[in-house]
Design a protein that fits this description.
With about 120 residues, the chain is mainly alpha-helical. It is about 50% helix and about 5% strand.
Length: about 120
């Protein structure tokens, strides 16, 4: 929606129709999809650079250590981690944010499901 993404769709060959398939059909694909609303190609580049920085790596490492440490303490009989622990909750929030922003892997089945639904909606 105005982010200026360019997509390459390559028509490689014409195959005979298979009556068991619904068309159109995606037969192959590659590459991950950037997260939604990341700001177009330039915003995605900035996003990748920020996530790949040494400071981002250090923060992710510290968060993982803190969360693992609290879980191990609980596992060994210590107190359960709670929402009343700001450092623990902040680390969990940052971990969730990192997971939410992971690029989406290409999924041919999902593409074909979407194509199938779109073809049913068309007159």
């Amino acid at each position: 929606m105005g982010d200026s993404w360019l997509h390459a769709i390559v028509f490689e060959q014409m195959s005979p129709d298979d009556p068991r398939k619904t068309y159109p059909v995606c037969t192959a694909g590659a590459g991950d999809c950037p997260p939604e609303d990341c700001g177009g190609p330039e915003g995605y580049q900035d996003f990748i650079e920020a996530r790949s920085s040494f400071a981002a790596y250090e923060q992710a490492h510290e968060d993982a250590l803190l969360v693992a440490e609290r879980i191990l303490v609980f596992y060994e009989g210590g107190p359960r981690p709670t929402v009343d622990e700001p450092a623990f909750m902040d680390a969990l929030d940052r971990m969730r944010d990192r997971l939410d922003a992971v690029p989406i892997a290409f999924d041919r089945r999902a593409v074909n499901t979407a194509l199938h639904h779109m073809s049913k909606e068309m007159p």
